[in-house]
């Protein structure tokens, strides 16, 4: 982590690739993230073929995940 960086404003970006199609809602239940005692928001994007699933875990104050 960059010195002085606020972990509450950071993001973790990831991708899950499957060899067989997976239902989006079932896969989403397999990932959870916490920062201290706070559960973090996870935003998902899924391809129509059910093989590629991208996610972003946002720190508690990350601007990209702020409620609109």
The percentage of residues in β strands lies in 25-35%
Gyration radius over CA: 14 Å
Between the first and last Cα atoms, what is the distance in angstroms?
28 Å
Strand order, biggest sheet? 1-5-4
User: What number of domains?
Assistant: 1
Major β-sheet annotation: 3 strands, antiparallel
Q: What would you note in describing this structure?
A:
Helices cover 7% and strands 34% of the residues. A hairpin with a 2-residue loop joins strand 2 and strand 3 (38-39). It has one domain. The strands form 2 sheets. The protein has a 3-stranded antiparallel beta sheet with strand order 1-5-4. The radius of gyration is 14 Å and the shape is elongated. It is built from 1 helix and 5 strands, in the order E-H-E-E-E-E. It has one helix at 24-28; strands spanning 11-17, 34-35, 38-39, 42-46, 52-58.
Short characterization:
By secondary structure, the chain is mainly β. The protein is 7% helix and 34% strand. The protein has one domain (7-61).
Per-chain topology:
Layout (H helix, E strand, L loop, with lengths): L10 E7 L6 H5 L5 E2 L2 E2 L2 E5 L5 E7 L10
């Amino acid at each position: 982590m960059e010195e002085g960086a606020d972990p509450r404003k950071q993001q973790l970006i990831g991708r899950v690739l499957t060899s067989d199609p997976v239902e989006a809602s079932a896969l989403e239940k397999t990932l959870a993230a916490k920062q201290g005692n706070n559960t973090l928001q996870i935003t998902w994007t899924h391809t129509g073929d059910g093989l590629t699933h991208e996610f972003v875990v946002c720190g508690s104050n990350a601007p990209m995940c702020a409620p609109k």
